[in-house]
Amino acid sequence: MISYIKWKIIDLDFNYVVILTASGLGYELGINEQIYSKLALEEETELFVFHHKTENSESLFWFSEILEKKLFIELIKISWVWWKVAMQILSLWVEKLVRAAKTEDNKTIESIKWVWKKMAEKIILELKDKDLWFEVLAKNQNTQKQIFLEESLLSSIKSTLTNMWYNPKDVENILQNLPENLTDVWEIIPYAIKHLS
């Protein structure tokens, strides 16, 4: 089972990349447009690979980080989501996908090519409570609060604090760097006031 390769690009397209390994083996891997834009600037790099086997075929898929690979595996477990759809969904970037699932933002997921309303609902239902999300969120503490706290709630907290004559830039800075254990408005506002005073 192939899971990791260090390689050199020998052919690149929007949907696939052909790579040559140090041992002289060449592989074709499925990619999405977001990955294509990264690879277009690099001749040699590291990648994470998912080796997908079915009764009728074997395919390899490229991921820039291990979390993308894990999300891809979760996505293709969902009915109606085949590998091409999963790759398109991942083109949202991991953080945006997390936000859409956690806030049940159907419109963002429906905006993806080949995803219709029922499929978007199924994706959100299957993914929103996965433990994997905490691993995804841990890699970016600044976006963690933005994802767990709905944007309307953050906006409301900002408005409350600026109406109390606190500097909007200072308020923004405090809200972007909240401790992980603060998720309730009645905890966040006193914390912010204490650090703004």
Beta strand count = 5
Strand order of the largest sheet: 3-2-1-4-5
Proportion in β-strands: 15-25%
SS-based class: alpha+beta
Count the helices. How many? 11
| Rg, Cα atoms, Å | 20 Å
- Approximately how much helix is present in the residues? 40-55%
How do the SSEs run, as a string of H and E?
Answer: EEEHEEHHHHHHHHHH
What profile does the largest beta sheet have? 5 strands, antiparallel
Roughly what is the average pLDDT, rounded to an integer?
80
The best one-word shape is elongated
Could you tell me how far the N terminus lies from the C terminus, measured between alpha carbons in angstroms? 57 Å
List the SSEs and their pairings:
Blueprint: E1 4-12, E2 16-21, E3 26-30, H1 33-39, E4 44-53, E5 58-63, H2 66-76, H3 83-90, H4 94-102, H5 106-110, H6 117-127, H7 132-138, H8 141-148, H9 151-163, H10 168-176, H11 185-196
Antiparallel strand pairs: 1-2, 1-4, 2-3, 4-5
Helix pairs in contact: 2-3, 4-8, 9-10, 10-11
Structural overview:
The protein has 197 residues and is an alpha+beta fold. 51% of the residues lie in helices and 18% in strands. It has eleven helices and five strands, in the order βββαββαααααααααα. It has helices spanning 33-39, 66-76, 83-90, 94-102, 106-110, 117-127, 132-138, 141-148, 151-163, 168-176, 185-196; strands spanning 4-12, 16-21, 26-30, 44-53, 58-63. Strands 3-2-1-4-5 form a five-stranded antiparallel β-sheet. The longest helix has 13 residues, at 151-163. The mean pLDDT is 80.
